[in-house]
Design brief:
Number of strands: 13
Bound molecules: adenosine-5'-triphosphate, magnesium ion
Number of helices: 16
CATH architecture of the largest domain: 3-Layer(aba) Sandwich
Strand order of the largest sheet: 8-9-7-10-6-11-12-13
Oligomer: single chain
Helix content: 40-55%
CATH topology of the largest domain: Rossmann fold
Strand content: 5-15%
Distance between the termini: 65 Å
Number of domains: 2
Shape: elongated
């Protein structure tokens, strides 16, 4: 279904009428450009007779560079030979006389076929370029929980800071909680640049472009922040996330991905590319049920259980649940545990991760164990984590 660009309402309705669901209409070329930026999938646009020829041809010329697979069908009141040849030189695919609906339908169908072929070649080339580009082969670690509020963002930020401060790895933290991302606040960084800056780079992202959207943090990590403007989240497709993470893993040793508490298209793209999935749970019946459903879902989606580890947050506040209860519900070993501490919300309010402010804090020590797990190493022995939990209880007392 093409996008119709026509300022006069009657003419726009007329042009759109033949298409299923009556096509989409925008009144001018700036709106058309915005619509194409949001909808990467659109392959055909119809520029109506209400748009003057010069502007239409300038737009078409610009698309040859920015959106080479896009087809432009130009509708004019009258067909003149000079217009035809000028339009072809500008890259317009077809010029159709106004009110000739069968000709418009045919032109759109033909244009769509050509564009679809060009697009799939383009995608294959982009994929090959990204995959064969020289660079690192960084580890992508996705932090996920099917239930909100389990501590994903707390773990993501503290884990990223811990790894960055150890200075053995370059670290990038990506906030994929596109609607309600907290990473910017938790790290107290200015969201001047966000993941939305990647939208115009879609299908031709490279390291220089991606570098320009990264936000630096004093710990040494860099972050890709979530959008701050309502509605911007919709511009981020799963394919864009895949491309972004593919480029980021060439630039950084570790790429940590914070997520929203549901399996969105973008989360699935991140899980697809991940080397490790850290599943966060809390010892509450609802959170454990969430983990159970998540584990079943990951199995169903065919992800390997080898690349998955469970982290129990607020592990010491069992609220009546025994370790046996927890084991029974989860049915798999817990790789790492993090104690409860009032210092966690305090550190979030301050915008300084606990791992940075107090590396010896029991929560910071537990996060170091999470870091070992995230990097694929064995977790510290049960003795050490119990000691951490005991100390945290003493702290709170
Ligand atoms: N170990 C902990 N001790 C005390 N409070 C904690 C702990 N972990 C997380 N919290 C608190 O729980 C709340 C939720 O944490 P966080 O925002 O990290 O969860 P989330 O899983 O990212 O939530 P959402 O799904 O809404 O993004 C925060 O207020 C945080 O301070
Ligand atoms: Mg969060």
């Amino acid at each position: 279904m093409p996008i119709i660009c026509e300022p006069h309402e009657g003419a726009a309705r007329r042009l759109a009428a033949g298409f299923r669901e009556h096509g989409r209409a925008v009144p001018g070329l700036p709106e058309l450009d915005r619509a194409l930026t949001t909808d990467h999938e659109e392959l055909v646009v119809v520029i109506g007779p209400g748009i003057d020829l010069r502007s239409a041809l300038a737009f078409a010329t610009a698309q040859r560079v920015h959106r080479p697979a896009l087809s432009i069908v130009l509708v004019r009141e009258q067909l003149q030979v000079e217009v035809l040849s000028e339009a072809m030189r500008a890259g317009v695919r077809e010029v159709i006389p106004d009110r000739d609906f069968p000709a418009l339908m045919d032109a759109c169908r033909r244009s769509w076929e050509v564009s679809a072929r060009l697009r799939s070649t383009e995608q294959a080339q982009a994929q090959a370029r990204i995959q064969t580009a020289p660079g690192k082969s960084g580890r992508v670690v996705v932090i996920f929980a099917g239930k909100g509020g389990c501590g994903k963002s707390m773990v993501s930020t503290n884990l990223a800071v811990t790894l960055a401060q150890a200075k053995r790895h370059s670290v990038c933290l990506v906030d994929l909680d596109l609607g309600f991302g907290d990473v910017g606040i938790m790290l107290r960084v200015n969201p001047q640049r966000t993941i939305v800056d990647a939208v115009p780079m879609f299908e031709h992202m490279d390291e220089t472009g991606v570098q320009s959207m990264l936000v630096k943090h004093e710990s040494g990590l860099v972050a890709v922040l979530a959008p701050v403007t309502p509605g911007d989240a919709e511009k981020i497709s799963g394919r864009l996330v895949h491309e972004l993470l593919t480029v980021l893993r060439r630039m950084f040793d570790v790429v940590i991905v914070d997520t929203p508490p549901h399996f969105s298209e973008q989360v699935l793209a991140a899980l697809d590319i991940s080397d490790m999935q850290l599943l966060i749970a809390a010892p509450e019946v609802t959170a454990l049920k969430g983990l159970r459903v998540t584990l079943d879902m990951l199995d169903l989606l065919g992800y390997s259980a080898e690349a998955r580890a469970i982290v129990l947050n607020r592990a010491d506040t069992r609220a009546g649940l025994t370790p046996a209860d927890i084991d029974r519900v989860i049915g798999r070993p817990i790789a790492a545990q993090i104690p409860t501490s009032q210092d966690v919300p305090a550190s979030i309010n301050k915008g300084v991760p606990l791992a940075m402010e107090d590396p010896q804090h029991p929560v910071s020590q537990a996060i170091r164990n999470v870091a070992r797990v995230a990097l694929g190493g064995p977790p510290a022995g049960a003795k050490e984590s119990r000691k951490g939990l005991r100390r945290s209880r003493a702290n709170r007392a």
